[in-house]
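Hi U.,

Before I forget, here's the chain from the pilot set. I'm dumping it here mostly so it's searchable later in email.
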Amino acid sequence: MTQEKKYPIPSQEQENIEEALSAIWHQFEIGVREKDRIFAVLEEGVSLEAFPVLVRRKLAREENSKIVLTEEGEALAKDVTRRHRLAERLLTDVLALSEQAVDPNACQLEHIISPEVAESICSLLGHPGECPHGSPIPPGKCCRSASDTIEPIIVSLDKLESGEKGKIAYLLLQSHPELHKLLSLGVVPGTHFSLHQTFPTHVIEVGETTLALEKEIAENIFVRRV
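Structure:
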């Protein structure tokens, strides 16, 4: 009989721990490590009671009026952040939920997505580097190995062949400043396009506009094949 791996439903304490670590990690991303500022964030979004639990679990500590995550705490913070932001991409790009519905559902999913499911979602979405809000998605094992065991439904524009059609899913705006210009030209999420040429540049038709894109630009435009 095959031994099945079981993933118990997380307790309320475990959810609070993950939410607190996620909040702390987001502050670290924007350069905030001061205790008072992080405590204010925890008090508003989670609970100040969560921090003593992190200390007791040896996930975090206070050091010189700053918050420090242990190695285990940092790994869990990255993991829950990755799960949340992958859930946001899934709900936005595949299920096309409204912006108002994405965050509360992602907050629920982040606690119950198993490592295997997270890897599959990431592969399915073409290993996205950013969430819909532009925050980085911590890479997983599938990103480092560039696993292609699951055919992505979201791919970068440079992966398409001439003659294919698709719909813009998202742009990695932080990766290339010039991508911001495309937004004003109508290259926005949800827009349909046709790819007419892939060499020496990628030529796409969006509405009545024809655009020639260098490969480094095409690599940062993620699309869904139609």
